[in-house]
Amino acid sequence: MYGLESVWSGFGQDVVKGKFGVELEGLRVVKGEGSLALSSHPYIFNRLPFNRYVTNDFSESQLEIVTPCYSSLDRVYDVLLSLYDFVDRNLCSNEMVWNQSMPCILPGDEDIAIAKFRGNSRAEELIGYRRGLLKRYNIKKQLISGVHFNFSFDNGFLHGLYDRLCLDMVYNDFKNQVYLKIVRNYQRYCWLIIYLTGASVGVHDSFTDESRKLAVECEVMVVFIVGMVVH
Question: pLDDT tens-digit profile of 179-226?
């Protein structure tokens, strides 16, 4: 019911207005080695006001840079760059942020520490959540890092769409339905999005056996397909 041209006409660029934010994950690694840094999360990142913007993800060695939400993509990009520069300047001199989604050279599972939260009333809750993940999933899989893109529509646009559709539901229910519809469409095309933007060319031997087996199978498949094309 939201796809009719008569419904969308007149909104113009309002449909792409809203709030935007980025969460960027990355592993701390030892320069010149490419191995996971086993040092503690830098203390300076736990001092206000930076802990809202630079924190841990799953592991003590896994940084997460979180921008505030802005109505301008350029503003989000500028703030992200500033936060990244701040992180780069305050890492140990022998460390850097790994620039790949798939992990660097990893130690044994027992040497990978989950994030340690200090001086926070929610510290135990956050640590407990990660321990729960650890029981359900392989610890090394949790070190796969990525980018989270946060977006919400402009309220003026949603209110305008709601008024035009004249639906028999309250505004908050309508708003929830809009976002749920977007999620369903995302799930429908998720395989294509991952294929185009999330495919990795390889993994290190220190990653999981399952992933190494998959990498070998993919390599064999590529060789087979190329062979068919050549012949």
Answer: 999 889 888 988 888 777 766 667 888 887 766 666 555 554 444 333
State the residue for tokens 């993994």. Answer: 203
Query: The tokens of 207 are what?
Result: 């990653």
* DSSP letter string, the chain: ----HHHHTT-GGGGG-EEEEEEEEEEEEETTT-BBP-SPPPGGGGSTTGGGTEEE-SBTTEEEEEPPPBS-HHHHHHHHHHHHHHHHHHS-TTEEE--SSS--B---GGG-PBP---S-TTHHHHHHHHHHHHHHS-TTGGG---EEEEEEE-HHHHHHHHHHHT-SS-HHHHHHHHHHHHHHHHHHTHHHHHHHHT--S---TTS-HHHHHHHHHHHHHHHHHHHHHH-
Structure tokens at 17: 């207005």
**pTM of the shown model:** 0.79
Of 198 and 76, more confident: 76
What distances in angstroms separate CA 59 from CA 95, 116, 130, 132, 163, one per listed residue?
A: 16, 8, 9, 13, 46
Per-residue pLDDT tens over the stretch 27-61: 999 999 999 999 999 888 876 555 789 988 889 99
